[in-house]
Every structure is written in structure tokens, then in C-alpha cells.
Automatic annotation (TrEMBL):
Protein name (Swiss-Prot/TrEMBL): Flavin reductase like domain-containing protein
A Pfam family reported for this protein in Swiss-Prot or TrEMBL: Flavin_Reduct
Residue ranges annotated for the Flavin reductase like domain, each copy included: 18-173
UniProt cross-references to PANTHER family, sorted A to Z: BLR2425 PROTEIN, FLAVIN REDUCTASE LIKE DOMAIN-CONTAINING PROTEIN
Gene3D superfamilies named in the record: Electron Transport, Fmn-binding Protein, Chain A
Amino acid sequence: MFYRPEDGHGLPHNPFNAIVTPRPIGWISSRDGQGRDNLAPYSFFNAVAYVPPQVMFASTSAKDDVDGTKDSVANIRETGVFCVNIVEYAARDVMNVTSAGLPHGTDEFERAGIVKAECEQIACARVANAPANMECKVTQIVQLPGEANFVVFGEVIGVHLRDDCVVDGRFDVTQFHPLSRMGYRDYTAVREVFELKRPDD
């Protein structure tokens, strides 16, 4: 099968999200200029550089009560900071609660019953018991072709690691099983890890 996206795929459901999988989930916390906290998951998320450490997430739709985007991007435009909270399998249900399209200014931490803590380097809340949190300052927000497509890039200036996830000096994902997004409404969790050495190691 071959199709051009501009012509349509002819399938019952769009296969694009199912092709690029699994995708890590950036559970993005932000705070607006009035001090109201927000928490939302984004599966267009990844790390993009080592030195300095940098991450990105993309927002690809808009809400009626926010100017041309979603709460996370709107808040980050105002404050210039955000936090990435890593989602473990055990948090799948509360993460899903925070994906709801709620009125601007709603605190998803409170809505989902998630314990929050203050970040160390930025004025932002974080998920208190997440396996890891990355405090970020924005480096740039890029608008992509298409309506309401924005990529937010941030430099990681503070990192929290949950103590039980550090084993023998390594951050061990098998201690918490990172949740990842597949296509459609499907998710998966990392439960198996193996190592490959590069030819020049």
C-alpha cells in the first residue's frame, strides 16, 4: 500500500501515529502568569541534545478558550519555563485524566488527585512522585506548517530522580516501566531491556 497524506489513506483510521511508535510521553507541567498550574501529556516528545541537555514537545491542536494553541504552550509563552514529568505505567490512569480538554485555568493536578511539588530552579509545579522530572527553560517555540502546530524546545536546568529508580549508579527504567504511546488509543510499557554495543566500542 502507498498513499500521499494530502490525498488521504482510505483506511478506517489514520495510520500515521501507529507508524512512529513507541513514543515517550512528556507529561508537561506549566504555570500561567496568574499562578495557575496545568498538567498535560504530549506524545510528540523527546530528548534532542546532550550538551546542554535539551528536550522538545509538540502541541498540534487548539482550544476555543486559548488563542490558537493549548494551555501548555500558552502558559509557557507567558513564563518561559516548563517541567517534563516522566510517566510510569502505574500512573497511566491519572495521566489519562489530565488529557481531558478542560477550561483554561483548571488545575489538572487537583482534578486527577496528583500530588504536586515545587520545582527547584523554576517557578513551576512538578509531579511529586514521578520517576523523574526535568525542569526546563524555553530556548525557542517554533510554529510548524498547519493549524496550531507548535514545537517547544527547552534546556534542562534541573533534574529530579526518584531514589528507587537509581540502581547501581544507573537510572533503571525497569523499576517503573515507562509508559509509551502507540497508534490510535494504544499504549505500551517498557518491561524488557537489552544492550547492543556499537562496532567502535
